[in-house]
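Hi V.,

You were right to ask for the full record rather than a summary. Here it is.
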Amino acid sequence: MSTQGSGPTSDVVVQKYGGSSLATVSQVRQVADRVGALARSGRRVVVVVSAQGDTTDELIGRADAVNPHPAGHELDQLLATGETASAALMAMALQHSGLAATALSGSRSGILATGPHGAGVIVAIDTEQLRTLLDAGQVVVIAGFQGVTADGDIITLGRGGSDTTAVAVAAELRAGHCEIYSDVRGVHTADPRVVPDARLMPDIDIDVMTEMAFAGARVMHSRAVELAALYDVDILVGRSTATQTGTRIHRRDGNDMLEDRTAVMAVVHDTDIARITLRTHDTPDPSPAVFRFLAEESIPADMTTVSSAPGGGFSLGLTVHRSHAADVSRSFSDLMAPRRHGVEVEDQVAKVSIVGQGLLSRPEYASRMLASLVGSGISARSLSASQLRVSVTVPSSDAVRAVGLLHSEFGLGAEAGAMPASLSPRP
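Predicted structure:
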């Protein structure tokens, strides 16, 4: 993705509103009032919208009723209509309030994407039309979650892809920051739906947020955070109806206290994963072929382990999103044919992670994590570690309990205040 145009456009504000913020006519009007007030203050405004409420799930349900295994080309055409309709309604609401507004589909907004259907990746944005409309005093409303291929086909960006649309537009317009609004207050130390005393984090380093998003935090689309980190776009995450500031995600300047830089900051879990193990009974190592396939299909994998067997052969294990499990398992078998091999799929597992900074150089964090889980009767397997994240797989039935235990173990609850985990008592 290369930046078009010249010079900063710091007077441009890019906002994204999630589907839960637009579910009803009343909510659409409330957001339009909020956007209208910003536009009337003299700012140039781009609004990226998701499909209203549960529209995407409803469209998927209709597709499944007609054909449980639809072609990606047609499914993308269907799903893109949710965001397109939402953009049109928002523009209509703005027009009704007396503002000039134009709704754009992903293709009309100049968003070029590539990759497989349902998992497109933005490669460029032609901002000429966006700039022309903004210069003419228009509020531009963009249908998120979608783009167009070089061949002119509609392609969607995957669940949460409207976040990525908004960050990409902010990067190309050199807005410097992007505001993401939904039904959550911001980023918490754990999912507040499963940990009632999870604290709101008013400020978080963007590299830490990248790990949180990939590890399962649903506040932000992982590719959106990666894009923001690459193009130095600050993100504000908050609730669309709130007056308080949510969470600022940005690159810290390095002046934070030492203890903050080495603390466990959050616990994240992901129950939508499956662990796949491929075992071969001969050589060569299957890893190159496996990862070539994953790259071609744009399927991210995590917690990878590769080992050789004493009698020959290899064992390769990894985690993928559960929706990819069947295709990955089938493809692994195809890749290995006619070699002797076996593929095992475990879909009753979850990934639980502690996220922070300096974790790999402080092995006591992993030690405390495992001791807390095993001491409470939770089987922890497939550990992987980096400076920013330590992850284990646990039985999916134990995921919520594991998150609560680790949140308490590292002193992240509201009652614990701001005491860094690196200073909290150790067993």
